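User: Assemble these into one structure.

Assistant: Restating your components, then the assembled model:
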Amino acid sequence: MSESTTTTPLLEVRDLRVSFKSRAGTVNAVDGVSFSVGAGETLGIVGESGSGKSVSMLAVLGLIDNPNCVIEGEALFKGRDLLTMGDDELRAIRGADIAMIFQDPMTALTPVYTAGWHISEQIRAHEKVSKKAALDRAVQLLTAVGIPNAAERVNSYPHEFSGGMRQRVVIAMALSCQPSLLIADEPTTALDVTIQAQILELLKSLQGEFGSSIILITHDMGVVSQMSDRVNVMYGGRLAEAGPRRDVLRNPLHPYTWGLMASIPPTDGSRVARLSAIPGAPISPGDPDRDHCLFSPRCTFASDACRPQPALVEHSQAHFDACVLPFEQRPELRRQMTAVEEVAP
Amino acid sequence: MTTPSSNSAEPAVLLEARDVVKHFPIRTSQGKQVVQAVSGVSLQVRTGETLGLVGESGCGKSTLGRCLVRLLEPTSGSVFFDGVDITTKSRRELRDLRTGFQMVFQDPYASLNPRRRALATVEEPMLTHSMGSAAEIRERALALLQDVGFDASFADRYPHEFSGGQRQRLGIARALAVGPKLLVADEPVSALDVSIQAQVLNLLDDLQKEHDLTYVFIAHDLAVVHHIADRIGVMYLGELVEVGESTDVYTRPRHPYTQALISAIPVMNDEEETRERIVLTGDLPSPIDKPTGCAFNPRCSYAKDICRTETPVLQRLDDGREVACHFPLTAV
């Protein structure tokens, strides 16, 4: 999708579709999503619950263990398709070349093993090193992620760490084999803001050090704007908008992105009388009527033109969106939709 | 929302907490210990205003919220609602008083009875308090459902048929059923997606005007609290460290902890980050073993010797702000 990188991307996902068959019908969790991540780049994926942002990454890594799940498309990692790879091959890549950080650091760690065990186990699963050497590396990694007194803490159990410290252990584990791609699924959502700030700084500095690419999945536009080079906005399992961070934030094209940005209370100290909320509720991924813009039932500007689903169109350099509204009228329409009354402080 | 001003006649104080303390005794491997969840909080909420309580997990904001409506018995201290000390009342007396103050909970999945339909959920508190005939109660419940945005077709649905945002609206309708003057809302929007969060915040705002409500709004998200509250109280380790007018606190914090909390908010920004961020080191200390002196001193970059020995008390500064700090930041 992106032409901005001249070299082949590290990960290229093409027309990914993930559906779950159930007695009640088919649930289309991810519905034709394509994107790529270049080396050293951070891609932010934003969307609300049910938008398919987590499922798409789980599918790419072969982590969906559900016989009713159908995955289609391609996910080329360094030129090899992860979706057609055998279990052994995939296992050799997962945890080594691609690592994942999950939202809840408590459930990502086994409560009966120490932090050091978790990390050295991962190293020894991918490299031939002695237990002693692996444990030494675990201490180094725990130091690198900012755990004080790492030589001692390496023997602590997950419950002996606070939430922020636990997430650092998970990050140390993810970095243990120096992955070229790190997938972080809501890595700071369960944490307090001051701890979130620490973890985000840590991810940034480690990225500088290890040169990994990051895919950051989040619902928080603020986190995306601080961390990513490019942003994908997902709605109902499809891409609503995708582009360079600055373009998406300064000049968002899709009405859903407008609504998403406007429904957050201002953080600059100004106050609005009312938030410009998006009416209605997100569509159910099980809804069989999908041949239209899935945001149109909630969109102020919906018309007959929203059916069938508009294609993703490139409007400016690497800035795409899937909406039929006339491009030149977008800034004015955005003003109309998100007009709010500001109150004097 | 009314902005309280000091010169015109201020509305009456509806809720007042005086030195509320809540300790939880626990057994640990070191023997019996005490979690000091709330250590001496005093505050006032005036009729018609919204007081926001913010702080990180473990700061005691939810425990304080529950003490304010006496869902938890404070260890010491008193809470006055409309001039009546509710901490000394018997259970029976309290039950009648509860029609004046109600609570909205964080998790709309856990706080509704899954086997009760929407209409019955809203009717129940009115039946408990014998607030009219069955027909009257039914009519009031339907009107309340309409107030929170449900038409009659929703009345016979069960909670599992509602989405998260709808469930929270149902929880609000239920809290309003007995006609309270005060709502204590504990993280009412933090479990919701942002687009739905905005809907519920707007609804709370509308209801405040329609029903002349006073809110205590408890949340960890300072931007949300700044949006909805007239005044903000910032809590740290069971203590109020700063209280002031919402926008003042947000834009000109005078306690170092408030400053760090605001600085940590990820701002949606299309430029490169230019703010100088204050990233706090370390974690929140344990409320079992609180630091001596100012509770914030181990993480505070301005801490001096006195901060490690003497606990600062909440005091009013010249601009009306209340701050518990030996070295309050200067008002810019």
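Chain B touches chain A at residues 56-57, 163, 165-166, 193-199, 201-202, 205, 220-224, 226-227, 246-247, 250-251, 260-261, 263-271, 273, 277, 279-281, 283-284 (CB under 8 Å).
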